[in-house]
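Task: encode each sequence below as C-alpha cells.

Item 1
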Amino acid sequence: MAEEGTLTRVPNTDVRAVTGDEPIGEGAALCQLRDVLDRVGDKWSVLVMALLTDGPQRYSQLQRSIEGISQRMLTLTLRSLERDGLVARTVTPTSPPRVDYQLTPVGATLSTQVNALIDWAQGHREYVASARLRYDEAQSGKSS
C-alpha cells in the first residue's frame, strides 16, 4: 500500500510522444516512462534528492530533515533511488558502520529540476492555498 502522497501509477495513459502526435503504446516505452516518473515524482524522492543536493548525508540526517517520513518509507525511498542509479550508498567500516547517501552524477542532473520544482512550489504555495479555499467554498455552495 502506498503512503499518502505517493503515486503508484500515472493515471493518464494517453501520453503523446514528444516528437509527434502518435500516442505511446502500452508497450515497454510507456512502462519505462511511467516507472521513471513514478520514482522522480513522488514526494519523498523529491525531498530526499533536494536534501542531497548540498552533498552526502547520513540516514539519520535525512530522517530528521524530512518531517512526516517514516523510517520504513525513507528506507524504501533510498533503496529505490539507489536502484534507479540516482543515489549512491557508501558504507564506511567503522563501529558502528557509517552509511552515507549522495547523488550520483545522473541524480545531480535531476536535482537541478527537482530544486526548480521546489522553488516554484515555495513561490506559489499561498496562491495554491487560496485557489483551493475558493474552490472548496464554491463547491460547498453548490451542494446547499
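Item 2
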Amino acid sequence: MKIHVDWDLCEGHGQCEYAAPDVFTIDDDGELEVLDETPGEDQRKQVEHAVRRCPVRALSVED
C-alpha cells in the first residue's frame, strides 16, 4: 500500500492524524507530514479511515 497526498488540496485539518497517528502527523507549523508513505497491512484499516476522514479529499491509497 502506498499513500498519495495531493499537496495542493491539503489544508492541514489533521483528521488523518487522529485516524492514523503512526502514519500522519501535523507539525508545529500546521503542515501535514507523512511518517510512513508505505505502511504495512496492519495499518490498512487506520489509513483507509484517514482517507475517508479527509474533508478536502487530499489523500488516496494505491495497492
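Check on item 2: Residues 13 and 54 are 8 Å apart (CA to CA). Residues 44-53 form the longest helix (10 residues).
End of task.
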